[in-house]
Design brief:
single chain, Tex N-terminal region-like, Nucleotidyltransferase, domain 5
Amino acid sequence: MIENHITKISDELKLRHEQVRATAELLGQTATVPFIARYRKEVTGSLDEVQITAVRDSLNRLEELDTRREAILKSLEKNGHLTDELEESVSAAETIAELEDIYLPYKPKRRTKATIAREKGLEPLAELIFKQKGINPQTEAQSYIDLEKSVANVEEALAGARYIMAEWINENIIARTALRRLFNSKGMLKSTVAADMETKGAKFKDYFDWEEPIATAPSHRILAVRRGEKEEVLNLSIAPPEKDALQMLETHFVKSGGDDSKQVLMALKDSYKRLLSRSMETEIRIATKESADADAIKIFADNLRELLLASPLGSKRVLGADPGFRTGCKIVCLDRQGQLLHHDTIFPLMTAKKDAEAASKVKNLCRRFNIEAIAVGNGTAGRETEAFMNAIPLSPAIPVIMVNESGASIYSASKTAREEFPDLDLTVRGSVSIGRRLMDPLSELVKIDPKSIGVGQYQHDVDQIALKQALDDVVMSCVNGVGVDVNHASAELLAYISGFGPTLARNIVAFRNDNGPFKSRKELKKVKRLGPKAFEQAAGFLRIPDGENPLDASAVHPESYAIVDAMAADMGCSVKVIIQDAQLRRKIKISDYVTDKVGLPTLNDIMQELAKPGRDPREKFEAFAFAEGVAQMGDLLVGMKLPGIVTNVTAFGAFVDVGVHQDGLVHISELADRFVKNPSEIVKVHQKVKVTVLAVDQERKRISLSMKSVPGRGKAKPAHRSKPKNLQDLKKLKHHNRPFNNPLADLFRKNT
């Protein structure tokens, strides 16, 4: 472990050196983030998953920097450029940009204009002019005219010298650093429409002539204009005012007003236009893209976490329904473990006769399979099917619940679904997914590529490797945070358990199928390729209800069983009695069990688990119902107050399902009565909210909603912003808050 990495990370993250070092060592031993956070608190000083992940990512970033540093040093040595001073500079560089600036003058180049000028013997002339000692460039250039070297006259000699000076200016570290700061502080993001793309690129029309400071441009707008550029609709540029850049460079390189300095000034302008500006723009494009990606990925990850941790209905017998008009409604009956018992098709919403037949079939199936809840997908015909199910005279104990079916069609066509139901139609598989999603959203959603769930923002535009890492982190965190019943979990769910992966997960399922349910955690050691390390990482997150050892149903790790056994022995009872008797647990003095390896953090966790073994951290399920009589956009009226469910949170607002087959947008300015900088401060995915309809655009399928106490009353303002003083100011506020003048929302809807 490189000590300066530890120091740097501890300073950046404001953590103690020993915390970073211990975390790095555990990560180096292939320990997972959930395992370290849950079972190694004494080692890390109780760092949480966010902090451990930050340490991991910082280590990866510094390792990438070191890899590039080593490659540069090897290149410098190979080409005979490496000196002690240069090696020291390379070793001290703390960013990729610094490294590349140092390496640039020595980097093997393709044949440039400056290279050609050097071949013509013009470098001594360039050196003489660049010193700016007051020489006459015209006179000095006379001696460099050489027809054999293709230098026909004075102007050609001076032009060649300027190409060499332009390259020197471009490679100057001080100038590049200053110019980089200027691009970051005063750079303007500009977009214009490409030729003949006004009609084809209409969705980007608000960016046909757009300009704003890159320093304050929000991440979602950066991604939007970059998408427009990628689709060849927009031309994009990032640069500060040219006069500012040239003035800054002049202060570095132009020493006087003489003829030689005028040549340097000409070289400087050429260097900026041809080399420096392009190089700096490329850098800032990369930097702002990375920053925008990070923001978008965080939004996606936060949304995914909320969706995965949505309240489960639990182990109930469920009738799942995938609605449809012409092709009918596919229904399935599932047992309490989500196993398919029966599937059928009904044809409601067509004729009175078919309605009666469908109602009779549903009643019979509910009676035959003792159905305890009905799950209806929220896609096409969803609200109509919900109303139909509610009209059937079933037991009041059987709720009809709308389920977000985003991604169900992806699952239906997946390899996982084909392997589980090889002989069933896609729509039947979709119905199974809808029913299971009501019972346990987490167990079902892990079978779907997170990018297909529909809770992201520009997810197809961001760095896909970084996105996958972040989403995998979220899924693993959620799965391990909830815990998994090893005797009922699918291979897809088990694959996210700490220390496991697809292969081990399949081996566990195969062992379970061949030998029956696991009776204890230690029996897992018999599974093929499940060694001591994997067992250590995974065991605490696996649950075996009604197993041989009552602790196997809890989050107490097997390595701590001896501690609980000692507590039970000291209390003169069994472990089972300690779990059942709260008064007895209160008599336990946990400080008596502190050792050099086990401290109070672990002991407190053990006591919490003994109080509620295997407790599900998710909130209790509460049924939700949309407003009756509001099922289509045509049913919406301005001013209506409706219940809704947040389906997506973006940087510019939140999308809310109010049950009309088209999500409405609550713009960030309508989320709360106060100024909101980040929508996630106010709402989360799957949150139940009350909204007011501001506007409905049937033609464009746009719904504008508000969550403010007095909707539409101007844009919420930061405390420091002054109130409108006159009618003109008020008009400006109203203009900025027009419900449908939101290019980002339109673009997001069309391209997500």
